[in-house]
Amino acid sequence: MSKHLADKRSPSTGARLKQFLRLARTPRETWHRPRGGAGPSRLVQFLRIDRGRSA
């Protein structure tokens, strides 16, 4: 009985790994956007909460 076709495949050239690394190294602006700085109103709200005052 001979081996199945899938058992006789040639060694891979690493193309999948190359593509994975290429994708891993590219910047992902869509999902990883930097957060904007805290504006003055956000700071006021933080200080209000820190002092124990509720809205």
Layout: helices, strands, pairs:
Elements: H1 15-25, H2 40-50
Supply database-style keywords.
55 residues; 2 helices; mainly alpha
Uncertain regions spanning at least 5 consecutive residues:
none
The N- to C-terminal Cα distance equals 79 Å
Radius of gyration: 27 Å
3D shape? rod-shaped
Portion of residues in beta strands equals under 5%
What is the helix content?
A: 40-55%
Q: Please, how many domains?
A: 1
Structure class:
mainly alpha
The number of distinct β-strands equals 0
Describe this structure in words.
Residues 30-55 are annotated as: Disordered. This protein is mostly helical and 55 residues long. It has one domain (15-54). The chain is built from two helices and no strands. The chain has helices spanning 15-25, 40-50. The longest helix is centred in the middle third of the chain and has 11 residues, at 15-25. It is rod-shaped. It starts with 14 loop residues before the first helix and ends in a 5-residue tail after the last helix.
